[in-house]
Amino acid sequence: MAMSGGVDSLRAAALLKEEGHDVFALHMRLPPPFIKAGKQGDAPWEEEQASLKDLASKLSIPLLFVDVRKEFEDQVITPFLKDYERGLTPNPCFICNSKIKFGALWKEARRHGAQRLATGHYARTLPAGGLHPRHQLLRGLDRSKDQSYFLALLSQDQLSISIFPLGGERKKNVRLWAEHANFSEHLRKESQEICFIPEGNYREYLQERLPMPCEGNPGPIVDMAGNRLGEHRGLFAYTVGQRRGLGIPSHAPYYVVELDPRSNTLRVGRDQDLFKSQFTVLQINWVAMDPPSKAFEALVQIRYRHEGAPARIIPFGETGAVVRFKSPQRAVTPGQAAVFYQGDQVLGGGVIRREHKGESPAHW
Q1: Residues with Cβ within 8 Å of residue 20, at least 6 apart in sequence
Q2: CA dihedral 147, 151, 156, 160 (to 10 degrees)
Q3: Are 232 and 240 in contact (CB under 8 A)?
Q4: Phi first, then psi: what are they for 11, rounded to 5°?
């Protein structure tokens, strides 16, 4: 069991024990989270260890600590920083699950005799067989907490050893269990932010970690017609759809529409300019199917909280596709994940690519 110290992983471990599995827990030691100057950070590692040991003992399961700081830095944080330098808005959780949880952590779990790896994600799987020659990844039953979006990069081998005990659970019932089992007061506070930037201080984090601070590479802000409206502080301080912090006086709000690192230009427009009908996805991991050769229809989710929208998927090569929405969608953001669904089934997912005028898939 990959144990974070939150209520979801604890409930998942308890469910596995109730089902009769021989369970032990692994906790990943990650790089310390970034805390804004002048504020107190998380408890020291020794205190965190003691708290986690107490939680594991309440469940009567062994707990091991796995130091994955180097792997996390190399495979999650470094690509995250490089993407921001390129004017992208990456999703590190999308990468972490395949590279770290079901990569480095699974390797350590297997070394200790594990046959499967469980996490507290709200998602479901179906084994290969019968009408499905490939392992399937499905949405969690609790649609409001479904996390299959973050798992779309898992390979067939990784899906074959994964268990998601909360796939059929509802979050409210998990919280009730924690209260009845007297776990509530011992649990970590849940956060919707990235684990290594828990307060959402992205700009401060980038200023500290990137070789050139956000304010170190200013450039023009232009409107959709190319008229110069002002000067930005560095492209990686912005993301598509952003409204605040532009410093452009206007009777109606401007939004970030595009970041162009080639010319170091920030393009802004009105709300209607954020809607897009077509974009490209690369680095696709096909889950429910072999790489397709023909176009197909699917629901495409372009953010975790995006409801998904009907689209036509036109594949090229083995890991690329053009997505054409039936109705334009707001703030399609290069660097974010796009995941394809049919019903609850994950067909595949990849990374939204920035497109340049005059290019076509043949150039990629």
Answers
A1: none
A2: -50
A3: no
A4: -65, -40
Three-state SS at 345: strand
Report whether 238 contacts 256 (CB < 8 A): yes
Q: Mark out the alpha helices in 161-260 (DSSP H runs).
A: 171-180, 202-209
Report the catalytic residues.
96, 195
Considering only CA atoms, which of 183, 138, 155 is closest in space to residue 5? 183
Its sign, for the CA torsion 306, 302, 143, 170, is negative
Question: What is the rounded distance in angstroms from the CA atom of residue 73 to the CA atom of residue 112?
Answer: 24
DSSP state of 132: B
* Helical residues (DSSP H) of the chain, grouped into ranges: 7-18, 45-59, 69-72, 78-85, 92-96, 106-111, 156-160, 171-180, 202-209
Considering the chain, what percentage of its residues have pLDDT values greater than 90? 74
Distance CA 59, CA 203 (A): 40
Separation in Å, CA 71 to CA 108, 351, 356: 13, 21, 33
**Which CATH architecture best describes the domain 217-269?**
Roll (2.30)
Mean pLDDT of the chain: 90
The topology under which CATH files domain 276-363 is Elongation Factor Tu (Ef-tu); domain 3 (2.40.30)
What 3-state class would DSSP assign to 316? strand
Q: Using only the alpha carbons of the chain, give its radius of gyration.
A: 22
Q: What is the pLDDT of residue 37?
A: 55
Q: Does the fold of domain 276-363 match that of domain 217-269? A: no
State the DSSP code for 133: S
Q: What is the mean pLDDT of residues 191-219?
A: 76
- Residues 213-255: tens digit of each pLDDT: 555 688 999 999 999 999 998 888 899 999 998 999 999 999 9
Give yes or no for a contact between 323 and 280, defined as CB atoms under 8 angstroms apart: yes
Residue with tokens 């190319």: 226
